[in-house]
Design goal:
The complex is a heterodimer of chains A (791) and B (271). Chain A has 791 residues and is mainly beta. Chain A has three helices and 53 strands. Chain A has a 22-stranded antiparallel β-barrel. In chain A, strand 22 and strand 23 form a beta hairpin. The longest helix of chain A is centred in the first third of the chain and has 15 residues. Chain A is globular and about 85 Å long. Chain B contains two helices and 16 strands. The chains are: A mainly beta (791), B mainly beta (271). Chains A and B meet through strand 46, strand 47, strand 51 and strand 52 of A and helix 1, strand 1, strand 2, strand 3 and strand 12 of B.
C-alpha cells in the first residue's frame, strides 16, 4: 500500500513542477440555467484549440488554468444551447455563464460547432448520469416517475424484485449501495415496500450512479454509489409545479428569497390513504408522504450556504390492531467556499435518522428501532492546472444504532419492557483523488482513501469462550448459538474494536482516436456497517449493525475494463464493460436465524465471502426524435460460507452458491419517440433470468405436519421475468412557456399482462390434501393516468 | 412477530394474485424420517407411547412410504430398555409399559436397514394452561375468533413451549413455539386465530415442555411449513436437521426429531 502512496506523490510532484515554467491564468466561475439561476452539474467547458477542458462540479463551479492567450471557448450541456465565445486570458478571470434551455431557444442559432465530447476521455468509468428529464421519460408503474426504477434499466443494475425495495448493482446486495441525497446518507430508499422510491423526481436535479472505478471521495459501501443532488430552487421567479395521479399527488414550489441571491424549494408528495383499501372491509390505511426542502443563499461570490432537509414516512394501519410507521429524516447544512479561483471547498454537517416503529395491539407489543448519525464532511476540489485536478477531504460519521426497544402497549400486558443494547461507532476517513492528464491520449486518475472504524463502548457486550459466538454441533451437523460465558461492561469512550483500511483507487483512460477510448479501473473499498437481513429482499424491518468483535468489515476489490465509442457525431454511443469483484467478510446467517429483537446477533452470523463477474453492454441513441438505450448484462454473483474448521459444513456444505440477486441475463430496452409537439410515446422492455430460489426436493410427515424438505440454498430459479411498459405523454399547448402548462401521462405497466413470479411457495392444499406449488405475481397489467402541471 | 408482519405485507399487495402452477422439481434419495415424541400427559401414567418411522417422498407424491422392519428401543439412564414393537408393517412402533420420569434422560436407538440411528433427549416438564380467553372480534380482520391460552411462566429458568391447537371437527392442527425471553415470570398467553373457527368447535389445546434445542428445531421447521412459505419476505428455507444421528453412515442423516415432553391438555368448546 505504501509504495502506491509514494508513487502517487511522485507522479504529482512531477506534474506540478512544470507549472511554473510559463505564465498561466485561471478561468473560473459558476454555470447556471438562465431562467432560474439553478446551477448545472457536469457542464462541459472546452478550449478546442488546445484540447483542454473541464466540467462543472456538483455545485456548478468550474475552474480551468491554461497558458496566457486568446482562445475560443465552448460551453455545452445536453438539452441547452451551446455558448461559444472568444476570451483573452492575460489575468485570472471569474466568469459566470447562463445556459438557455433548447426548448425555449428554437429561434436562436444553435451552434453546431464540433465539440469534443469529454465523456470518452475522462478515466471515470462505470458511471451513469441521469438528469431528471431522462428519468421522467421512462414509463413506470402507477404513473409515477421514479429514480430507482430508472437506474434498474441500466446495465449491471437490477431491482430486488417487484414489491421489494432496493436495487442490486453488479451482483452486490442492496445494503452495499451508498445512497446520498445532497451528500446525506439515506438508509432506506423506498416507500410502500419498493413501489416508489423516496426521491421526489420534481425536486431532483441530477444523479450519478457509480458501479465501479469509484473515486476515493466515496466510501463506506462496497457495491455502488448513487449520488443525488436536489435542486436549489429558482432564485429569479416564483414557480409551482405538481402532478395528480391515481396513487399519489405532488406539489413543489420554488422561488427567490432575495432575487438572484437566495432561493427556497419546498416539495411534498403524498399517496392517498386508502390506496390498498380493498384488503379487508375494515378501517385500514396505507400511505406515504415526504417533504423536500432547501434554502440556498449566495453570501457573496466566494460563499454559498445551503440548508436542506428531507422527511418521509410510510404509515400502515389496520383498525387498532396493527400500526407500522417508518422513514428517513435528514437535515443538512452546507457551506461552499472558494479559497481561490482554483480551490473550491464544501463543508457539510449532516444529521440523518432512520426510524422504524411497529405496534401490534392485539399482542400488546410495541417495537422501535433505528439508526441515527451525525456526519461531518470537508471536501476540497483543487484545480491545480489544466492537467491535474485534485480532490481531497475528510469525513467523520458518528453512529448510534438502536437495534430495538420493546414495550408493552397496555399495563396488564405479559410483555416485559426490553431494550436491546444500543451500539455506537465512529467512522473516519481521509482521501485524496487526483485526475491527471498525462498526455493528450492518456489520462490517469488515482486516489487513496484511508478509512478507520471505531466501535465504541456499549452498555453490555457478551463474552464467549475463544470468542466463538456460533458453535458447530458436530453430532447434528448444525450451527448453534454459543452460550455467553460473561458480560463485559464498557464506557462510551472505550474502544471495543477498531479497524482501518487503505483503499486505493485507480483508473486510466486511453484515447484510441477522436471517437473511442479504452478505460481500466481498480478500486478497493471497505464497508463497516451491515444490514441484517436473511430474507431474499430487504424490508423496512431490517436492522443495521456495525462491525465489531464478531462482524468484520466487508472488503471489496473490483477490477473493470471497458471500451467506449461515440458514433455519428455523438448521436450514438456504445459502452462495453467487463468487471470482476471479490468481497471478503460478507456475512451470512445460520439456518433459521431470527434477526428480529435479537440482542446477540453474533450468535447467528457466519463470515463468508462473495464474488461477482460479468459483461455489460450499453448502446445509446442520445439525440433526435427517437432516443433510448439498449442494455445487456451477462453476469454471475455467488457467495461462499465455508466451515471454519475441517469438521464444519459451512453453508451449502461450503460450496459456492448463487446470491439471491444472481441474474444471468438482464436485457432492457428503453425508448422514447417524440411524435410531434403534442404527443410522445415511450416504452421499456425488460427481460431477466429468474431470480434464484430454494425449492423442495422431497417431502415428509412429522408430528402431524407435512414438511417440504428444501434443497441447497438458491439452487433453483423462478421462471424468467419479462414485461413491456408503454406511456403516452400529451401536451395540449406545447408552445406555451408562461403561466399554466399542463401535460397528461397515460401509462400501461406490463401491457401484455405477464404473470411474473415474485415467489413460488410450496404447501399442502387444505381442502384437497395435495401438495401444490403456488406462484405469487404482484403486478398484472396496470393502467394509470396522471396530470402534471407547471405554473 | 415477523410472521405477522409478513402476512400483513402480502395482504397489501392487492393487485397481486396467486395461482397454482406446474413446476419440475428435483428429487433427492429417500431418507429415514423419525417421528418420535414421548409424551407424558399430566396426571396420567404415560405408559402408552408410539414412534412413527417413514421415508421422504418426491414432493408431489400423494403417499408417504413407511419404514417397516426396524428395531426400535428407548433406554433410560438406568439402562431400562423399552422395546417398541411394530404393528404389522405400518411403520408405527408401540410400547405400553413406558415409565416416564421427570428430568430423566432417554436414548432412542433405531436399527433400520443395517444402519443405527441414535438420539438423546431429557424429559422437560411444563406448567399447566390456567384458563382460556376468547375474543370474537380479533385477528387481522377484526372479525375472527381469537383464542388465548394463558399460562404462568416460571421465573427462575429458561422455558420453551410447544403449543398445539387441534380443531377436532376439522382435524386441523396449528403449532406454535414460544420462549420466555420477553415474558419471563409473567402470566402470558399462546395465541390462536383462524378465520374458519366458529362457535361449537371443539379444541384440544396441548402445551408441551420442550428443550431449547427442540425449540430451535421447531422454530425453523414451522417457518418452512407456513402457508406463506417461499414468499419474498421469509427466511431462507433449508433442510431442517434434527437430533437423530446415523451412527453407521453419518452422510445418510435422518430427518425428524426425538422429543420427550410433559404435556398439559386443555379441551375447550368455542363459545
Amino acid at each position: 500500500m505504501k509504495p502506491f502512496f509514494y508513487w502517487c506523490i511522485c507522479i504529482l510532484s512531477f506534474a506540478i513542477i512544470p507549472l511554473n515554467a510559463q505564465s498561466k491564468y485561471t478561468l473560473s466561475g459558476t454555470i447556471s440555467e438562465e431562467k432560474s439561476n439553478e446551477t448545472l452539474i457536469g457542464v462541459n467547458i472546452i478550449f478546442p484549440e488546445i484540447s483542454a477542458g473541464t466540467t462543472t462540479n456538483e455545485y456548478g463551479f468550474y475552474s480551468i488554468t491554461v497558458p496566457e492567450g486568446t482562445y475560443k471557448i465552448v460551453i455545452s450541456y445536453i438539452g441547452y444551447s451551446t455558448i461559444s465565445q472568444t476570451i483573452t486570458l492575460t489575468k485570472d478571470i471569474t466568469k459566470n455563464f447562463s445556459l438557455i434551455d433548447t426548448l425555449e431557444s428554437l429561434d436562436e442559432i444553435i451552434i453546431t460547432e464540433k465539440i469534443e465530447k469529454l465523456n470518452i476521455r475522462t478515466p471515470q468509468m462505470s458511471v451513469t448520469k441521469l438528469t431528471s428529464g431522462t428519468i421522467k421519460d421512462i414509463p413506470v408503474v402507477l404513473g409515477e416517475s421514479d429514480i430507482i426504477k430508472a437506474i434498474t434499466l441500466l446495465p449491471g443494475v437490477t431491482s430486488a424484485g417487484e414489491g421489494a425495495s432496493g436495487f442490486n448493482v453488479r451482483g452486490g446486495a442492496a445494503d452495499q449501495n451508498l445512497i446520498l441525497l445532497d451528500e446525506a446518507i439515506i438508509y432506506n430508499s423506498s416507500h410502500l415496500f419498493g413501489f416508489f422510491s423516496v426521491f421526489n423526481p420534481d425536486a431532483i436535479k441530477d444523479l450519478k450512479l457509480y458501479k465501479g472505478g469509484i473515486p476515493a471521495r466515496y466510501g463506506g459501501r462496497v457495491s455502488s454509489v448513487l449520488d443525488i443532488y436536489q435542486k436549489e430552487g429558482n432564485s429569479k421567479e416564483f414557480h409551482v409545479n405538481g402532478g395528480i395521479g391515481i396513487v399519489s399527488s405532488r406539489l413543489l414550489a420554488e422561488g427567490p428569497i432575495k432575487k438572484d441571491k437566495g432561493s427556497f424549494l419546498l416539495g411534498g408528495r403524498s399517496s392517498y390513504a386508502h390506496l390498498f383499501l380493498p384488503l379487508f372491509d375494515v378501517d385500514n390505511k396505507a400511505y406515504f408522504y415526504d417533504l423536500n426542502t432547501k434554502l440556498s443563499y449566495k453570501l457573496n461570490d466566494n460563499n454559498n450556504i445551503y440548508l436542506s432537509g428531507y422527511f418521509g414516512r410510510d404509515v400502515f394501519k389496520i383498525e387498532d390492531t396493527f400500526e407500522n410507521t417508518y422513514g428517513n429524516s435528514v437535515i443538512n447544512f452546507r457551506w461552499n467556499h472558494l479559497f481561490s479561483n482554483k480551490l473550491f471547498s464544501n463543508l457539510s454537517l449532516i444529521y440523518s435518522d432512520y426510524y422504524y416503529n411497529l405496534r401490534l395491539n392485539f399482542v400488546e407489543f410495541d417495537w422501535v428501532s433505528g439508526i441515527k448519525n451525525l456526519n461531518l464532511k470537508y471536501d476540497f476540489k483543487h484545480y491545480l492546472s489544466n492537467k491535474i485536478k485534485l480532490q481531497y477531504g475528510i469525513n467523520s460519521i458518528y453512529y448510534r444504532f438502536n437495534p430495538g426497544e420493546i414495550k408493552p402497549t397496555v399495563e396488564s400486558s405479559g410483555i416485559n419492557p426490553f431494550k436491546l443494547t444500543d451500539k455506537y461507532a465512529f467512522e473516519n476517513a481521509i482521501y485524496l483523488d487526483a485526475e491527471h492528464k498525462v498526455s493528450d491520449k492518456l489520462t490517469f486518475s488515482y486516489g487513496l482513501r484511508i478509512s478507520n472504524f471505531i466501535r465504541l463502548g456499549q452498555d453490555e457486550l457478551n463474552i464467549y469462550e475463544d470468542d466463538q459466538a456460533v458453535l458447530f454441533n458436530d453430532d447434528f451437523k448444525i450451527y448453534e448459538k454459543a452460550e455467553p460465558i460473561g458480560i463485559a461492561y464498557y464506557k462510551r469512550s472505550n474502544v471495543i474494536e477498531s479497524f482501518h483500511n487503505f483503499e486505493p483507487r485507480a483508473s486510466l483512460s486511453y484515447q484510441l482516436n477522436a471517437k473511442s477510448s479504452i478505460k481500466m479501473s481498480y478500486n478497493r473499498m471497505a464497508q463497516y456497517i451491515h444490514l441484517l437481513s436473511n430474507t431474499s429482499s430487504p424490508t423496512p424491518l431490517d436492522i443495521w449493525t456495525p462491525s465489531g468483535k464478531f462482524v468484520k468489515p466487508q472488503l471489496l476489490d473490483q477490477y473493470a475494463i471497458g471500451y467506449f465509442k461515440n458514433f455519428n457525431d455523438t448521436t450514438y454511443s456504445l459502452e462495453i464493460e467487463s468487471f470482476y469483484k471479490n468481497v471478503e467478510n460478507r456475512i451470512d446467517y445460520i439456518d433459521g436465524a431470527d434477526l428480529i429483537a435479537n440482542n446477540a446477533i453474533e450468535q447467528v452470523i457466519l463470515n463468508g465471502k462473495s464474488r461477482a463477474y460479468g459483461l455489460e453492454i450499453l448502446l445509446r441513441k442520445n439525440e433526435g426524435r427517437f432516443k433510448g438505450w439498449l442494455a445487456y448484462t451477462l453476469s454471475k454473483s455467488e457467495q461462499q460460507t465455508p466451515g471454519r474448521t475441517a469438521n464444519e459444513l459451512g453453508i451449502n456444505n461450503g460450496y459456492w452458491y448463487n446470491t439471491a440477486f444472481d441474474k444471468t441475463h438482464d436485457i432492457s430496452l428503453t425508448s422514447s419517440y417524440q411524435w410531434n409537439d403534442k404527443w410522445k410515446i415511450s416504452s421499456n422492455f425488460l427481460f431477466q433470468t429468474g431470480q434464484p430460489a430454494t425449492f423442495p426436493n422431497s417431502q415428509y410427515d412429522y408430528n402431524g405436519l407435512n414438511i417440504p424438505n428444501y434443497s441447497d440454498r438458491n439452487s433453483n430459479r423462478l421462471p424468467a421475468y419479462h414485461r413491456l411498459d408503454i406511456a403516452l405523454n400529451y401536451t395540449p399547448k406545447p408552445n406555451k412557456h408562461k403561466g399554466w402548462q399542463g401535460e397528461w401521462v397515460f401509462g400501461f405497466y406490463n401491457i401484455y399482462n405477464r404473470r411474473n413470479a415474485a415467489s413460488i411457495s410450496f404447501a399442502k392444499n387444505e381442502t384437497t390434501r395435495v401438495n401444490e406449488a403456488t406462484r405469487l405475481s404482484i403486478f398484472g397489467i396496470v393502467p394509470s393516468i396522471s396530470y402534471n402541471f407547471k405554473l | 412477530m415477523r410472521k405477522i408482519v409478513i402476512i400483513f405485507i402480502l395482504g397489501l399487495l392487492v393487485t397481486s394474485c396467486e395461482d397454482v402452477i406446474d413446476i419440475d422439481l428435483n428429487t433427492a434419495e429417500p431418507r429415514l424420517v423419525i417421528d418420535a415424541s414421548i409424551l407424558w400427559i399430566k396426571d396420567t401414567a404415560g405408559s402408552s407411547q408410539i414412534i412413527h418411522l417413514t421415508l421422504t417422498a418426491p414432493y408431489f407424491n400423494d403417499t408417504i412410504p413407511v419404514a417397516t422392519g426396524a428395531t426400535v428401543t428407548v433406554t433410560d439412564s438406568k439402562n431400562t430398555v423399552f422395546n417398541f414393537i411394530e404393528d404389522g408393517s405400518s411403520g408405527r412402533y408401540f410400547n405400553d409399559t413406558f415409565t416416564p420420569l421427570k428430568n430423566e434422560e432417554y436414548t432412542l436407538n433405531i436399527l433400520y436397514k443395517n444402519e443405527t440411528y441414535l438420539a438423546t433427549e431429557t424429559m422437560t416438564s411444563v406448567v399447566p394452561i390456567d384458563y382460556i380467553e376468547q375474543k370474537n372480534d380479533g385477528g387481522f380482520s377484526g372479525e375472527d375468533i381469537e383464542i388465548k391460552a394463558y399460562y404462568t411462566d416460571p421465573e427462575n429458568e429458561k422455558n420453551f413451549y410447544l403449543f398445539d391447537f387441534f380443531v377436532v371437527d376439522r382435524e386441523t392442527a396449528s403449532l406454535e413455539v414460544y420462549d420466555d425471553e420477553f415474558t419471563n415470570g409473567n402470566e402470558i398467553f399462546a395465541f390462536y386465530s383462524n378465520e374458519d373457527l366458529k362457535t361449537g368447535d371443539n379444541l384440544i389445546i396441548r402445551n408441551s415442555g420442550i428443550s431449547e434445542r427442540t425449540y430451535e428445531f421447531f422454530n425453523i421447521l414451522l417457518q418452512q411449513t407456513d402457508e406463506d412459505s417461499g414468499d419474498p419476505f421469509q427466511t431462507q428455507p433449508a433442510t431442517v436437521r434434527g437430533n437423530c444421528v446415523n451412527q453407521t453412515n453419518p452422510d445418510n442423516y435422518p430427518l425428524g426429531y426425538f422429543k420427550v415432553s410433559e404435556v398439559d391438555v386443555f379441551t375447550y368448546v368455542v363459545q
